[in-house]
């Protein structure tokens, strides 16, 4: 028999080589051809020799190609076959499982839990269970995603195969150790575990009970508080009806042993005397993966003793490539919904319980935050997510290192902790920067940590073109790890880096050791590949980039404003000298010529809506131009731009070289608005004031760093007043880079009707121009604001201007100067 088996294995291995090569060539073929080849590869990976074939597949086929097949939402069969391949690869050893994780399969597999196909859902859960069985770190990667929301929506208690797969998945998740999964990440699955304990299938019940026991032992009193008040009595009744089920007896025994169950002891009346004679054995070695019938998981049923489950199982092929299924009886019990308040009210009856709650209450004192700041950074660097979550209750997510200004997200990325990165992205913006202007994506690119970089790139709010203090994006920093990957002949790493945007023609310069450049006389990854005669690597690179990136990097961004209606403000002809008071240290320096830059965005007409026209806004532009030009300012004015044009204009203004030579920048926007958060553009689209301000943060606009920035918003709120309530309802905000040296002045509070009906100008801009004309030459900004309020009351407007300060730390004078001829300005 041995020769036949060897011959069969050799023949099948040749078939694997053939199918793998077809898989590589079929990426641009039709869905039908891809489905055929993918199904052939899946069937081969379910053979008895699949562990040997996985190594060949990983060497010759990039798993990212298989992962991309999961995005074919219009072809569920192709999705199912691709997920099946990943499922069986993850059923191999730890290196095989890690390859699936590194290929970025976890987020997409979780997305497939929302699939309309039950087969795709089962295969996705199966693959995730194999990934979870690979290592505790993989469990945390899975839990960091929102996995239980789609799973709870799709679970069908009547589907036998789905119930078996989900219960086994939950068991692998709850058995995670070193570190133990965080309670807040596991608690959403507790109602599902409780439901599965009452399932009609014994295998589902056994897996659910073991998940229940592991969860309870790991989290004790918080676990008890999350249980439904009626669950204890229901599981006691279940145990009475099935005293022979050792898994149920162990679950009941665990409930009795957990702290705080004395009050509920009468409800948990168990009859497990006979079960006490049995020992609860946990075998540390996984069960062997034996052959199974088509369409059923390769899982040995739980025997008389509780056994450690097979962490990874491969799926077997069925004749048609789709698993069969059977239907269990309808589950008639109502789900056990968590009710923390009800159970806590029943449990807190002793001083000991009260003291324990006091211990876990957050302490936000400055001394405690300072003490635990170092601890939370160490926990992040070590990947201890459980400890990180607990420490954040006291410190909050906004802590940074004093020397580098790095956040917790920077630390997690630098130490390649993907599960911590996924968790912290819920609290910290991916665009936050350290003192070198580097985002977490910059750090990941420099370190060559492709897995965490993919996680960061999946965030919709990430700004891909964000530059650090050296005017480099994360894609440009990828040149260094690409250079090293070519040096070490790491084809998989090269493929990943190229897909992430690494440029093989970028001049690495100081990013790598200068010895290579001196000895080999190469400065790019492509040159290095040619110098080392590694011809197999060169075809992996995209076509040569004709732009000289080295020279392009040495200069700052500079654009010329050539857009639409942009009349430039005229400068005054009189020369000015600074008055003595502006040289005081606590006053913003305003001794430049021109004094400042003004950008006026006036939206007076709106597409297909003549009823919204703001007739007086043209007078406002004229008045603002006259006032600021007399104070020595330069700038541009734009009228009724579209949303896209507005973004282009402000982006180009941000990069203008004139900002290097001015003392401040003033941005004035006049339009209809929703509250003070959004304004209407000429094409009837909405932009946010937050986006406008964020565009000129220190990391985005280094030319205005440490310079005062004023944003003046004159919004007519009457038309959109009925929608203003929507503004206050928003998602939980993440920690972001704060605004610096910024002041926002609003024409109203955002909740009062304010109409622009005067052809001579709006009341707010009229009052502002009068105030600046009469008092800007001698008054500080705070005093000017009070004068503005007095002037605004003369317009009989029902609204009141509002002012918001964002680290505007010094005094500011618009035009604190004397003219050379001694004449005061008007």
From TrEMBL:
<feature type="compositionally biased region" description="Basic and acidic residues">
    <location>
        <begin position="268"/>
        <end position="280"/>
    </location>
</feature>
<dbReference type="InterPro" id="IPR015917">
    <property type="entry name" value="Pept_C14A"/>
</dbReference>
<dbReference type="GO" id="GO:0015031">
    <property type="term" value="P:protein transport"/>
</dbReference>
<keyword id="KW-0040">ANK repeat</keyword>
<feature type="domain" description="Caspase family p10">
    <location>
        <begin position="741"/>
        <end position="801"/>
    </location>
</feature>
<dbReference type="Pfam" id="PF00514">
    <property type="entry name" value="Arm"/>
</dbReference>
<feature type="compositionally biased region" description="Polar residues">
    <location>
        <begin position="281"/>
        <end position="304"/>
    </location>
</feature>
<dbReference type="Pfam" id="PF00656">
    <property type="entry name" value="Peptidase_C14"/>
</dbReference>
<dbReference type="InterPro" id="IPR002110">
    <property type="entry name" value="Ankyrin_rpt"/>
</dbReference>
<dbReference type="InterPro" id="IPR001309">
    <property type="entry name" value="Pept_C14_p20"/>
</dbReference>
<feature type="region of interest" description="Disordered">
    <location>
        <begin position="268"/>
        <end position="326"/>
    </location>
</feature>
<feature type="domain" description="Caspase family p20">
    <location>
        <begin position="594"/>
        <end position="720"/>
    </location>
</feature>
<protein>
    <submittedName>
        <fullName>Importin subunit alpha-5-like 1</fullName>
    </submittedName>
</protein>
<dbReference type="InterPro" id="IPR002138">
    <property type="entry name" value="Pept_C14_p10"/>
</dbReference>
<keyword id="KW-0653">Protein transport</keyword>
<keyword id="KW-0813">Transport</keyword>
<dbReference type="Pfam" id="PF12796">
    <property type="entry name" value="Ank_2"/>
</dbReference>
<feature type="repeat" description="ANK">
    <location>
        <begin position="436"/>
        <end position="458"/>
    </location>
</feature>
<feature type="repeat" description="ARM">
    <location>
        <begin position="61"/>
        <end position="104"/>
    </location>
</feature>
<dbReference type="GO" id="GO:0006508">
    <property type="term" value="P:proteolysis"/>
</dbReference>
<dbReference type="InterPro" id="IPR000225">
    <property type="entry name" value="Armadillo"/>
</dbReference>
<comment type="similarity">
    <text>Belongs to the peptidase C14A family.</text>
</comment>
<feature type="repeat" description="ARM">
    <location>
        <begin position="104"/>
        <end position="132"/>
    </location>
</feature>
<dbReference type="InterPro" id="IPR011600">
    <property type="entry name" value="Pept_C14_caspase"/>
</dbReference>
<dbReference type="GO" id="GO:0004197">
    <property type="term" value="F:cysteine-type endopeptidase activity"/>
</dbReference>
